[in-house]
Design a protein that fits this description.
The protein is an alpha/beta fold and about 500 residues long. Helices cover about 55% and strands about 10% of the residues. It has helices at about 5-15, 15-35, 40-60, 60-75, 85-100, 120, 125-130, 140-150, 165-175, 185-200, 225-235, 255-265, 300-305, 320-325, 330, 345-355, 360, 370-375, 385-395, 395-410, 425-435, 440-450, 465, 475-495; strands at about 80-85, 110-115, 135-140, 205, 210-215, 220-225, 235-245, 245-250, 275, 290-295. The strands form two sheets. It has a six-stranded parallel β-sheet with strand order 1-10-7-4-2-3, sandwiched between helices. A four-stranded mixed β-sheet has the order 8-5-6-9, sandwiched between helices. Helix 9 (about 165-175) packs across helix 10 and helix 16 runs parallel beside helix 19. The protein is elongated.
Length: about 500
């Protein structure tokens, strides 16, 4: 492959010792915390098996559960909106904000406050609202920091892991307090005071959804800071963004998934806040929004669901464990990927959820295939195998091997199919295939190669950047086997 944007960014990050130190410390901390939580192999095996079964069954009944969820939400007084694309989701959010603020415009500094939601990053909601002259303030501490820096999250759990304490102090001096202060507790207090004023004046709160229970029409939101509860309680209108795959069947299935999520993500037995939202404020209640809206986003998920192989991707509970253990991610960080979801899970999600681009097609190749991501995934997503499948999609090989039944068992995965398969590669593999179908010619060529081994170059493109040059053996495998048989036969005669 030629030098890609990913490789160029990765090279830059690898030379930045400051970033390397930040990533290493953060990832080692998260890995150690997770290991402490799952120190009993039997419990890990049992809990993981349960969580995988719950998500697999939910996906097998996805259309049915989504309709059940919609009915229960409406019955609870929650308004449901369906969005096929990011553009549709953004337009729905914009319309709801305009309807809410039409009669009584809020403070110009914060008409909208937003808790942590990866779906909003996926649809680039902040940028869209900014274009509409509607400020949207991030209230999660990590998201707040990267917003001040005009950046995107570098990790789905710890968005600002690439920032040092000094970096954050400089940002707060410029945008929050006007004074340089690098004491962590002081910085947190400054952010808290800044955000509380916005919470009190905002009329629209936006949040994500970790799980949606079809049985009761309940939205479950997991957090540690309390900002999620502020966004879903204080504003007049609460808008919840969720992907189609977040639905589960019953409330009884929630505890195992919560245990897997919190322990895998932050190494906590349980998070500080688990919010369960089943409707807007009722008569006689003192807090809560007057309206609750849920936007169910597709954005390529239905295509993944229709493909029996890629359906496993939708089991993801967004814990980030695969990133924390990935030898590539832990060295290059999230911004190198240039996509909403970085790391191993991003490599198999981005090609379908992101717009068509050469960068998305390169991501499945940015992996050592060591298998660590698959081993730690709490819902047993076979990430290494899916990376290989995406590589086949990217080079067009999968379709050429499976054309006979592809249309019957697989949906059209359009974004990257065949983008990396050049005419030169096609010619090389066709020649290789033809050569292996003609034994005499094959033996002649391999014999010729062994005789000319001294002429082979010492530089073989990208291969020799990190590996020893390939040099043909002095004898072919067939020659060695024949020599071995002769030696064995001679030894038997001598005996």
């Amino acid at each position: 492959m030629t030098l890609s944007q990913f490789e160029a960014k990765a090279s830059s990050v690898l030379q930045n010792m400051k970033l390397q130190h930040s990533y290493r410390n953060a990832m080692d901390y998260l890995v150690e915390r997770r290991q402490q939580q799952f120190n009993d192999p039997h419990e890990w095996y049992t809990l993981r098996k349960t969580g995988t079964s719950i998500k697999t069954k939910a996906l097998s009944r996805l259309p049915e559960l989504l309709l059940q969820l919609e009915a229960k939400l409406i019955n609870n007084g929650i308004q449901v909106h369906w969005a096929e694309t990011p553009g549709e989701a953004n337009q729905i959010v914009l319309q709801l904000i305009k309807e809410t603020t039409a009669s009584t415009p809020p403070d110009a500094h914060a008409p909208v406050v937003k808790g942590k939601t990866m779906v909003s990053e996926e649809i680039h909601l902040n940028q869209y609202l900014t274009q509409q002259d509607i400020p949207c303030l991030e209230t999660d501490m990590g998201e707040f920091i990267v917003q001040l820096a005009n950046e995107t999250p570098s990790h789905i759990i710890m968005p600002a892991i690439h920032k040092s304490k000094a970096d954050i102090a400089q940002l707060f001096k410029k945008h929050v307090s006007g004074q340089y202060q690098d004491d962590v507790d002081t910085l947190i207090q400054q952010a808290r005071q800044h955000l509380r004023q916005r919470f009190q004046k905002a009329m629209v709160g936006i949040s994500g959804v970790n799980f949606a229970v079809a049985e009761t029409g309940t939205l479950v939101l997991v957090e540690n800071e309390g900002n999620g509860r502020m966004c879903t309680t204080l504003p007049k209108v609460h808008i919840a963004l969720m992907g189609l795959e977040k639905v589960i069947a019953s409330m009884a299935e929630l505890p195992p998934l919560l245990s897997l999520l919190t322990r895998s993500a932050t190494g906590q037995s349980i998070t500080t806040y688990i919010n369960m939202i089943s409707g807007p404020r009722c008569t006689g209640e003192k807090d809560g929004p007057e309206q609750v809206h849920v936007i169910l986003l597709d954005n390529g998920r239905s295509q993944l669901w229709e493909d029996q192989t890629f359906r496993d991707v939708l089991r993801c509970i967004r814990c980030g464990a695969c990133m924390n253990h990935c030898p590539v991610y832990t060295r290059v960080g999230g911004h190198t990927y240039g996509t909403t979801y970085p790391g191993p899970i991003g490599k198999i999600l981005a090609p379908q959820l992101e717009s068509q681009s050469s960068r998305a097609s390169e991501l499945p190749f940015a992996s050592s295939l060591c298998g660590a991501c698959g081993e730690v995934c709490p819902v047993k997503i076979p990430i290494p195998q899916l990376l290989l499948r995406w590589r086949q999609e990217a080079t067009g090989q999968y379709r050429s091997y499976h054309d006979s039944h592809f249309s019957a068992t697989h949906t059209q995965l359009t974004p990257i199919t065949g983008q990396q398969y050049s005419r030169r590669q096609h010619f090389i593999w066709k020649t290789w295939s033809w050569l292996n179908c003609h034994p005499k010619l094959y033996h002649f060529i391999t014999h010729l190669v062994t005789k000319c081994r001294a002429l082979f170059p010492h530089q073989l493109g990208g291969w020799t950047s990190y590996r020893t040059p390939l040099v043909p053996a002095s004898n072919t495998l067939h020659q060695r086997l024949k020599a071995h048989r002769r030696h064995t036969a001679l030894s038997k005669k001598q005996v």
